[in-house]
Amino acid sequence: MSGWVVDGVESDLGGFRLGPVDLEIAPGRAVAVLGRSGAGKTTLLRTIAGFLPADRGRILRDGTDVAGWPPERRGLGYVPQGLGLLPHRSVERNVRYPLELRERPDAAARTRELLERFSLTRLADRRPAQLSGGEAQRVAIARALAAEPALILWDEPWQALDVEARYELGHVLHELREQERVPVLVVTHDPGLAFSLADRFLLLRAGRVALATDATHLLDAPPDPFAARFVGFENVFDRARLDAGGSRGLAAWLLERSGPEGIAFAAPGVDGTGAPGPWRGVVRTARPTPEGVIVEAVVDGLPVVLRTSRSRTVPPPVAGGNVAFGIDPGALCPLGASRRPTEER
Amino acid sequence: MTAAGPPGRRRPRPSPWTVVQAVLAGSLLLLFMLPIYALFAEAPFPRFVAALHNPQVGASIALTLYASGIAVAAAAAFGIPLGYLLARRAFRGRAVVESIVALPVVVPHLLVGFGLFLLFVPGTPLHHVAAALGLPVYDSILGVVLVLVFVSAPYTVLASDLSFRAVDGRVLEAARSLGAGGPDAFVTVTLPIALRGIVAGLLLSWARAVSEIGGLLILAWVVYPSGLYPGPVSTTISVYIYNLVQLGDLQDAAAVSSVFLLIAFGLFLAVRLGERYGRLPWGRGELVP
């Protein structure tokens, strides 16, 4: 079949086991690899790229197993953390590099075109050390495209980028998908990037695939506390935390409704927008943010994040004050459960 | 105390740390320069001019540059691959190899000459090989080069090892995935990035080679013409100066030393200026603030 298939890839790296990992990436699609630090995300990318051996399984490019091929023959654009730009070459010569390796007669013209497209023409003579984070990212993607890769592997593209550069890079990545139809496998800790770019999500836990799914399913049923935080739940409790919370109060109430991995819920409102309820807590901090005032309160020993809209007339909660709120049981998200219960309190 | 300088522009006062650095660095530079100054002061100007025009001094300097040039080329040809091996490959006995590389730096150089002398004593296998090839070792250019490579190549190996280690593996991996095979990646990525450090090692090797004397006093005090050295009977410059000192001709010794020091200083300065302003490929490194 066309595209890329990772089929039961496993490797033992002495102390760390990766896999088995199964994954399909169709042309023009993007897959985001998620997981905690040390879950094996970069290891997976480096295994697909050919820098780490796959002990078992196949890596198919358009039906051909490339698992035994050297990295330079796999037809990949691998952008490692830190980008891997050649520090001794100018921007122009970095972009030209893959074309030089292929002894392409149109190297100069193609380089010019790519520099133009990624707004790098005026930076052509600079060295990578003289670029901003966003500029360096654009050089990395222009250079990867110069190699005309069949798959782009990108490790943490948004690392250390400011808001403006992130916006710009997001735009570039979208264009890449729409125009070039190059499939992308991206490792990221950034939900904004993952949800704006990826069609599929691969959640790794200790080297194994915990979940392979689409955005809707990941948002509806995050399998573990990490995924719940990733998709934006402000309140995430694993079972151990709830077990330690005693037999009464909020911890016990949440424990009754928890999945095998714990429970998550969005920040309840405390200004009439949330369900009224019996929970009372003491405000620890209250921070104004673009999304409203974020209140951290302690309820029966559990830290809970709440939210109020920013209002000029109603004063926000203050540290040390009391706060009352309700939690809509329908909004609770048990973690690790096969489906969400819809119980009422 | 008031700050000097044009009104309206106050020069920032140096921090105590800057002063400490300047004092320490200045002291060492002074130590480097004072003996050199003493040599120049000892040589009367007419002797200096005479040394410049002395064909024996010229031949000795030419022999020194020729032999040290071959030694540095050999250090590059054999030392850079060894440095790469140490930096990039895991193998058993690596600590032993690293210690062997360090040996020439610690062995007294008279012993180096003596060891090489024993290797080529008539009757030994190496003597037979050299004789079969028609290459004399004692008092020959080959003897000089052997000593110089022994004492100087470790600096190239060590500098190459450190420079190759400093090349970011992620840069290499990116290049590999963009289509560079192993040899391509070495030539286009690893070597250019490591080159600055390697060149520094080669310069050190060269400096060590031209200053060698101990091993030469035993193996090749005098150098007779041979197939590899068409020049006149001569000695390396270090032996030449040593001979003058032994004869008690200290003013001539100082004059010849001064001539050679100027040449060596000129060469170093040319390389440094070339790195800074010229188009030497390993130059233009950014200073780390």
Sequence-ordered SSE layout with sheet pairings:
The complex is a heterodimer of chains A (345) and B (289).
Chain A: E1 4-12, E2 17-25, E3 30-34, H1 41-49, E4 56-61, E5 64-65, E6 76-79, H2 91-101, H3 107-117, H4 133-146, E7 151-155, H5 163-180, E8 184-187, H6 191-197, E9 200-205, E10 208-214, H7 215-220, H8 225-230, E11 235-238, H9 239-243, H10 249-257, E12 262-265, E13 279-289, E14 292-299, E15 302-308, E16 322-325, E17 333-335
Parallel strand pairs in A: 3-8, 3-9, 6-7, 7-8
Antiparallel strand pairs in A: 1-2, 1-4, 4-5, 9-10, 11-12, 12-17, 13-14, 13-16, 14-15
Helix pairs in contact in A: 2-3, 2-4, 3-4, 4-5
Chain B: H1 16-42, H2 45-53, H3 55-88, H4 94-106, H5 109-119, H6 125-132, H7 141-165, H8 169-177, H9 182-210, H10 214-219, H11 237-246, H12 250-277
Structure commentary:
The complex is a heterodimer of chains A (345) and B (289). Chain A is built from ten helices and 17 strands. In chain A, helix 2 (91-101) packs across helix 3. Chain A folds into two domains: 4-220, 3-Layer(aba) Sandwich (Rossmann fold), CATH 3.40.50.300; 233-328, no CATH class. In chain A, helix 5 links the parallel strand 7 (151-155) and strand 8 (184-187). With 345 residues, chain A is of the alpha+beta class. The longest helix of chain A is centred in the middle third of the chain and has 18 residues, at 163-180. By secondary structure, chain B is mainly α. Chain B has a single domain, classed as MetI-like (MetI-like fold), CATH 1.10.3720. Helix content of chain B is 72%, strand content 0%. In chain B, helix 1 packs across helix 12 (250-277), helix 4 packs across helix 7 and helix 11 runs antiparallel to helix 12 (250-277). At the A-B interface, strand 6, helix 2 and helix 4 of A face helix 8 and helix 9 of B.
